[in-house]
Amino acid sequence: MGMKNYIKIQFYFISVLLFILIICFGCAGHNSYFIKGQQAIAAGDWDESIKNFREALKVEPDNIEIKLLLTKASWKASIFYMINGEACLKQKLYEKALTLFKKSIEINPANHKVKSLIKKAENMKKSDSYFIKGKAFLKKGKDGKARAALERAIKLDPQNMEAQKVFAALIKEEKNAPAFKLKLKTDAPISLKFNKTSIVNVFDILAKLAGINFIFDKSFTDTQVTLFMEDVTFELFLEMLLKTNGLSAKVIGEKTMLVYPDTPSKVKEYQEVQIKTFFLANLEARKAVGLLSRIL
Length: 296
Known about the structure:
Low-confidence stretches: 1-30
Mean pLDDT: 79
Order of helices and strands: HHHHHHHHEHEEHEEHH
Oligomer: single chain
Largest sheet: 3 strands, mixed
Strand order of the largest sheet: 2-5-4
Distance between the termini: 114 Å
């Protein structure tokens, strides 16, 4: 082989080698984001992998492998934040949980489970807020408002065991509470003895003793009362007086009570009017009216 041919071959070989090196280095430069993305996956750094794969796609928009790895990294990152959000939710760290859930859905909008978790976290947060309000109302003696707040708390989050516990205690207290709530002149126990005494006179004595007013229904009739009770509360004495004489009563003010015969017609006449709201869906107003008419 002649020297000229040898030089030509060597030159050709070097030229090819340089070309290959240029191509390789060029590709490495263009795919550096892809390589970094793979390294991030290996390290479990999903945020970093997503960032690099997105940059890699800008360089090679049609690279299927990069697209698949980006999809994989997005799912993994979304699940990672979702799981951590659930852990925070169990600890009632609502703001942190919501931040993680929103980051999860931002990375992967197709993660439908995290959407329901966001709603759950928001409801649990509101539930705790109503629970706190309910306890505050209880401390102030506003049982009605406390009950409404606790009911709302339980409706938002049926698993709110603290709210359920306080609500159950409130209901139990209401059931065990005296039948009447009046602002009496004194809370001291009373001892009263009546033997065939006019019931009107008995109520007159009670009115003076407790500092309250009695209003009688027009159908109320005077009867003779025999009742002996010692060291009892005013409420208990009044309750026994009413029950043993076929009467019922309704508090209409802190110092005023309406007394009426305990008959179905009178109970219906004086019972509290209750309003309940029903939320209807996929039902025309005209049909709803007909349905309610049949129910009532």
